[in-house]
Design brief:
Radius of gyration of chain A: 25 Å
Shape of chain A: elongated
Number of strands of chain A: 10
Strand content of chain A: 15-25%
Largest interface: A-B, 44 and 44 residues
Helix content of chain A: 40-55%
Oligomer: homodimer
Order of helices and strands of chain A: HHHEEHHHEEEEHHHHEHHHEEEH
Strand order of the largest sheet of chain A: 7-3-10-9-8
Number of helices of chain A: 14
CATH architecture of the largest domain in chain A: 2-Layer Sandwich
Chain lengths: ~350, ~350
Amino acid sequence: MAYENLSEREKKVLSCLISYYIASADPVGSRAIANKFRLGISSATIRNTMQDLEEMGLVQQPHTSAGRIPTDAGYRFFVDTLLRQEQLNEADKLAIDSTISSMAGGVEAILDQTSRVLAELSNQLGVTISPRLDDSILSRIELIHMTEGKVLVVLAFRSGLARTILLEVDAAIGWVELAEMSRLLNEKLAGLSLGQIRASIIERLHVSGGNPRLLRLFLDRESDIWNNAAADQLHVEGTRNIIEQPEFADRRKLRELMKMLERRTDLVSLLRNYHESGSGIIITIGGENRAREIQSCSVVSATYTAGNTTGTIGIIGPTRMPYAKLVSLVKYAARQLSKVLSGE
Amino acid sequence: MAYENLSEREKKVLSCLISYYIASADPVGSRAIANKFRLGISSATIRNTMQDLEEMGLVQQPHTSAGRIPTDAGYRFFVDTLLRQEQLNEADKLAIDSTISSMAGGVEAILDQTSRVLAELSNQLGVTISPRLDDSILSRIELIHMTEGKVLVVLAFRSGLARTILLEVDAAIGWVELAEMSRLLNEKLAGLSLGQIRASIIERLHVSGGNPRLLRLFLDRESDIWNNAAADQLHVEGTRNIIEQPEFADRRKLRELMKMLERRTDLVSLLRNYHESGSGIIITIGGENRAREIQSCSVVSATYTAGNTTGTIGIIGPTRMPYAKLVSLVKYAARQLSKVLSGE
DNA sequence: TTCTGGCACTCTATTCACTAGAGTGACAAA
DNA sequence: TTTGTCACTCTAGTGAATAGAGTGCCAGAA
């Protein structure tokens, strides 16, 4: 639909209505707007305007004698054309900075902390997804003998990520063979992305030497080594914030959402998909979400870079969320993450 | 209090009452017991018995004309003397077995999956804590050069656990120095527990050679390396199960609990504490819990062994929980974990 | 002495009617 | 075009009435 022909007044009223509703969570009446905002027009005029907005599908009434609440389309219009950039306050910046200050401790720890700080500052759900390892370039692969029959495979990536996979091997494999295998793997695989490795592992290691039993463990492209390594890590925090929201007073709704959050892989691909084309902040409102369970929620998400790969972070909450603030939060956090993880 | 003098009948009635209440979540009346269980006594007799049980503090009435519900003391007595061992059904065994089948993928992945399967099978919260690393014996320490200025420290423990810590070092440190340092660290530290290392790191590395700048990073006993490595990993799953429970219909209660769950370190030490003296299954009922926020919950927990160290797993839910089933679940899961992780 | 049936009593949860209040839509006047 | 006004609608809350569950106790049976 085209909403370009909205009058100044209609825009103002919609904007006030949404701001007010975001704070109060109650349907907003014409009187409330007339009193709280000095628009210089009477409640009757606002009433008429609201009627127009309703006809355009930007607001709706829960019942005849109630105030109005924004529809998904209303939020969409608000976000697209009425939202003005908001500077993040210093306290919030500081909180994020101190969380994402250095890579010490590893990438996963930072992401875990970041999801927590996002939840804290937004009062919503904070979500972070680890960088996509498929695009990540392997810088070293190391085999460490742990105990009889157990070998630790360490994959170190340029982006600073690391994954360890425990391998159960034939007890007979010794020190020297491991070192030899390690040398071989590095020679053949270092410098490639994990995706490339998975796609061509058979060809690349085909004619090589080394212990054949050990080799076989690495050869299967569906092997645990390559699969587990590529698995995305998801961090979700702030469940307690969401419980408080009046839109989740209904336990069934809350349950639906929680169920969705526990379906990790689905959630990961959902968020990733939003950023397949292009980067920047993406706001997905209510019914725009692909997954039924979160169609009463909005998602504010962004990608960050870690070397030559990217990850996703975001905030999830009811459609009635303070978009301006959340956008600046997510944007700032993504930028800081990129800075630290890309060592820029 | 001493409850040994309970008559056979009183025990039976209490047992029936609790079983019934666990299933229904509603106060249980004398008629309900008389009808559902063939005890061969009338509801009036049961009424009298229940009055006695109430005087002893084992059951209570929410209000004058309601049925009875068990008190914490009631559950305690039930669990201590009336609970009979229950065999876990084959389907549940299978579900656990297939989760905890091999160490492939690493210990943390298993623990994550285990918390999930515990939640699933119990319809409560499933909790797992990684093995205590302080007691774990370091089998190898490896330094891997990632990119300029970044070194990955890999700690491999006998128990099959591994931790990686990213170190930011002076860019000038090279290949050879790393290898030398690596050799040094293994020589001095391998075979010691992480706790020992932390306690005596200064003495052990004092007069050693190697690059002094690099060395300094390892010397501080409060260094990120030793601290992060020792940090316990906590996995909590099944929030959605808890939401459904009628005892959490009150949002504030639910919120309190969620808050507690997000205070990870507190939760970890709470659970660990229960198992400080002795192992086996420990059931902690309602007010027996140290943390106020979970005093309307019970915890069924057990320790598992991983090499020469131990970790904790458990189930958390409202005091009205099917203790018999949960005990067998936790017991079985702990045993299987120990089997796989101790390679026994 | 112990158990049981019966009965009066208590308390809760539900229903229904009623009311106050918020908000609208529409109209006539400014 | 805007505004004040008023009749109308719908909800949320209140209070009374009621049904139902469950108890405590007593008198009689076993």
